[in-house]
Write a sequence for this structure.
């Protein structure tokens, strides 16, 4: 009788142990599934899914431009700079990769420029939208991303014209100095003296 009770007790204990293992196993599996779901969700929300990527080939100085610099579309914040790198095929160019709002419909005649906030403020990339009749901007065969045409900013264009303007001012100054050299000043003085003498003589004649 006692032996039968012991066997029954062991069976009950074995069943309780198995039930515990099943519970722990179910909990572990639930945790694994939750982890996989979280990884899948994070994978679906990576930057590649959140942004559209474009590149700009800058041929002017990119001083003040860096990663995470603001990108604006027609004056409105629309993304940031993702990467800057030298162009191995052209030492004068810097390739700037932009990540922008994927809802933007950039056109083939859109242009990008490096602008400044005031005279001493920070820099940002400005994209001008282009015309609505132009086709959408797409990447060319072999390119990693679509390429936005680059245009020098107003300040950069002004900086480029200053040397020529200074050179012209120097020429004008030199010519003005030539006009006012000693010989010309003497000739002008003599002309004025002759004119004064002639005027005096004419006045005397009229008085007589």
């Amino acid at each position: 009788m006692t032996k039968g009770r012991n066997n029954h007790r062991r069976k009950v204990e074995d069943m309780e142990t198995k039930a515990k293992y099943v519970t722990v196993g179910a909990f572990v599996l639930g945790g694994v599934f939750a982890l996989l779901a979280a990884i899948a969700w994070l994978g679906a929300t990576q930057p590649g899914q959140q942004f559209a990527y474009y590149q700009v080939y800058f041929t002017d100085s990119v001083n003040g431009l860096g990663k995470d610099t603001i990108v604006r579309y027609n004056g409105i914040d629309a993304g940031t700079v993702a990467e800057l790198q030298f162009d191995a095929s052209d030492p004068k160019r810097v390739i700037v990769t932009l990540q922008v709002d994927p809802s933007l419909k950039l056109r083939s005649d859109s242009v990008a420029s490096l602008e400044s906030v005031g005279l001493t403020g920070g820099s940002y990339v400005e994209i001008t939208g282009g015309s609505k009749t132009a086709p959408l901007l797409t990447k060319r065969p072999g390119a990693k991303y679509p390429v936005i045409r680059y245009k020098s900013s107003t300040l950069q264009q002004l900086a480029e014209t200053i040397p020529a303007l200074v050179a012209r001012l120097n020429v004008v100054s030199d010519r003005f100095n030539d006009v006012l050299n000693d010989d010309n000043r003497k000739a002008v003085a003599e002309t004025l003296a002759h004119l004064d003498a002639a005027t005096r003589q004419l006045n005397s004649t009229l008085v007589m």
